[in-house]
Design a protein that fits this description.
mainly beta
Length: 220
Amino acid sequence: MSHHNHHDHSGHSHDHHDHGHDHSDETEPALQTLIYQPIEFDGIRTLNETSPNSGAKVVQKTWAQRLDAEPFLVSDADEQLLMFVPFAGAIKLHSILIRSSTDNSAPQTLKVFINKDDLDFSAASDQTPTQTVTFSQTNDVQEVPVKRTLFNNVYSLSLFFEDNYGDDVTRVYYLGFKGEFMRLNREPVEFLYEKAANPADHTPIVGVSNMGAQGSGHGM
């Protein structure tokens, strides 16, 4: 029941606070674990957002855009937000990345649910989340790890921003995820090439005539 009051976006600074040191050095080495391509951006839904699709636009920000002031997500009727993020396949989630601010609009409590595509605010409040995490008030990108054993087979995330640090609305400037994207074929690529050693099998089509041979060779 958003009223789209378009809360005044002034009153919060867009300063990026470089502090004279580059925080990218702390995260860049693990950039290859950033989950971006598997996100189904068209399927992202955010409840209680002031501007339509602003939640999806924040998730669509690349790592290079993480400090950009716009677009940003701001809640509407109150401080709560509920975002649904689907993936093209199963992922293993390792951590959540977020950038908010130093003021009281920074989200504080996030309840994370996996593989639930029908949550509303009532259900998110009543049900037990997969994990609850807490964010700090900072202009820097903060990385909050999750319990990996609970996030080994994730097809979608439902993110319930339950509260903030006291403001009437919640603002988020960047939201990202780190982990592993699990391909449907769990066999290593090298395993298929081992089966093509027979000269008679030199055809453009692989993975069909060799299917019967995949039962052997595991002991090597």
